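new request in #modeling-help
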Amino acid sequence: MTIETAIAALKPLLGNRLSTADAVLALHGQNETYFPATPPDAVAFPENTGDVAEIVKICAAHACPIVAYGTGTSLEGHHLAIEGGISLDMSRMNAVLKVNAEDMDVVVQPGVTRKRLGEDLRATGLFFPVDPGADASLGGMAATRASGTTAVRYGTMKENVLALEVVMADGSIIRTGSRARKSSAGYDLTKLMIGSEGTLGIITELTLRLQGQPEGISAATCAFPGIDAAVNTVITTIQSGIPMARIELVDANMVRGFNIIDGTSLPETPHLFIEFHGSRTGVAEQAGQFGEIAAEFGGHGFKWTTKTETREALWKMRHNAYYAHKALAPRLRAMATDICVPISRLAEAINFSVEKSAELGLVSTIVGHVGDGNFHCALSFDPDNTDQFARVQGFMHQLAKLAIALGGTVTGEHGIGMGKIMYMQEEHGEALTTMRLIKRALDPQNILNPGKILPPSNH
Amino acid sequence: MTIETAIAALKPLLGNRLSTADAVLALHGQNETYFPATPPDAVAFPENTGDVAEIVKICAAHACPIVAYGTGTSLEGHHLAIEGGISLDMSRMNAVLKVNAEDMDVVVQPGVTRKRLGEDLRATGLFFPVDPGADASLGGMAATRASGTTAVRYGTMKENVLALEVVMADGSIIRTGSRARKSSAGYDLTKLMIGSEGTLGIITELTLRLQGQPEGISAATCAFPGIDAAVNTVITTIQSGIPMARIELVDANMVRGFNIIDGTSLPETPHLFIEFHGSRTGVAEQAGQFGEIAAEFGGHGFKWTTKTETREALWKMRHNAYYAHKALAPRLRAMATDICVPISRLAEAINFSVEKSAELGLVSTIVGHVGDGNFHCALSFDPDNTDQFARVQGFMHQLAKLAIALGGTVTGEHGIGMGKIMYMQEEHGEALTTMRLIKRALDPQNILNPGKILPPSNH
């Protein structure tokens, strides 16, 4: 009962769909942030749910860890097989199985990526709204409870997954939820699986809610004298019931980065990037009302557009935040925090980040999904500079503690993985015991993505 | 270790907040539908979370069943102590603890009722949108995953509860979620508790999302030549991205009932009751667009109003559906189904209900939350007419099976309780095993609302 015997047992089942080639292992052991490379012992490439069930059954029989792999774009090392075992690469399960246009839902396999789904849906007039930036797999997005710039309007993966098919730790296959829009029939296993990061089951199929393409879209940027002014503009806009589709904050440093990589000359103060979706007259009205509110808080340079090219350029700039950050310190690596707090405390948390990182001599930038109270503070560091890395980590700890103290969470959308596991006890307290009981009940051998979400227990 | 020893142990703790008076037991053993009266052995009246924790600890020590009681308005017998034990009456935990207006959330105790919260919030410009009709307690609404007429716009309890405090089966107190609008930090225990009907824990505090009162509200009714025309109007409206706040369908029989109790002379054909929320110009535009779509499907008599009195009269009529149904068969009792299906199959399910109930010689009416695919078919019966009651039950079984066959659920918003437990295996299949594992892990003695949600297991 070892990883080796599991691999031996998997070979006859999978043939060349099981790889132990160094290059393949190395690829599945990489990550986009600061975790050390962690190659698995083997990579399996299932092609259907039956494959996944058989693989899990064999792993269960040999007590071999199994870690689902989507596109590897996780920022918290979710997909790293830190206790060894099998990386389950879902990329071949990439079919869009059924578009139900009348019901505005779609059934997909977990390896379908966000952009691919968008392309498949283009002709239908429908779209899937959750956009975490990276071209992640939909299975991975569900597993990490991902969201992004549109969550303020359309919700996160939690609100946009209707049903799942999941392979459990014993290889059994369950279906959670249904295509009905709501149900009161028993425990909400769909929501339990969303955000469980592959520790309770392997998602093998998803039914997603779709939205109709809005008739009108207007977008704008607006400069503000400070963080508080920008955040107060957002609070007032939300309270006024003006439905924003996107509302993103960037700080002065980030604007400086944009100016470097885009050759623009935006005033280097905090900005909001805004988008409205609705009828043509609706978005015009909303943009007008927003402009008035922004002006009250000292917003200036506000100009809205419905032109597709101008809008796309605006969001391209915003989505290039990572590169704009890198432009401020080209030779350093970057990592990002992900706290989410009640919006009334957001300015306080962002100002703390800006001031504290400056005090520590760190290059930092802020991008925030400000309508949700969620923001990322990106920090540059030199991996060989241990003193600097210690300051980065000290800053991350302080910010995590602040988030919890303000009634928020250490992660709004990136997930726990390995990077936030040390805060689970502080954020959840006694509820962590409940999570452990659930994990133990559903995965008694701890073979599903061991070492993630739940910190080692003392008892 | 019996119910009797538990009651003896609870007395010193609770004094006169523990009652075994016949009238109190009888009250807590009643229900609004067809289940036989089922008085508990005692009723406890906790006044704070500490009380609940102590009561549960004592019940755990004596393996005594404990069933939370809100307002007793459940339609599926959720609050009946069918294995005896303690009814935990939450009505004294009825404080609105904190309104966070800037964050648009509120913290309440579980005994606060929906209407009471609405009154408390009136001056703030904010409101809590979930409206199941009855003046239910918010704890009960969360426990049954309730919704109602506004779910199409604002969601169900699932989307509107941010955080909970819960007393677990061993008397430990946990906090789930936070006041942050989103989080990816671990298993979603909030959503697991919502809809768990008191079988996994006792909800002792809720943090709820609030909405801003819309600037403009317009409402209307519209007559249609048939069910299909009305449903197709709704499908087209949703696909056009016109945001409805409420969209309710009533069938010809129900309109006949309205005409009887209200003295109106509406054409006795299917009708939609519609409401739009938004800016003043927005709701005017939406009502206009809806009117055009309705006309295409043969809708007539459409006239929208923004006058508060006219609107209130309209929704009062809709909310009196139960009495309108009763008017069609005044001497009989009534019960209601609650299936929810993908909207493309809704007309089929409603037409089946209308035709089948007529064929069986039953008095039936339909009201539907048609934007969600959820509808209630109310049926009249004489409890002493066993043949007729058998026909009602036969109809309910057929409709439940149809819902599952159409990719839907046997209960959109009323919950499982006792009334739908016989369909859990058929609706969930292997996923029922996962639910059982969770129940066993969190309530190993099965003291929390035993006999609800999970049907007796063969193993």
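bot summary: The longest strand of chain A covers residues 202-209.
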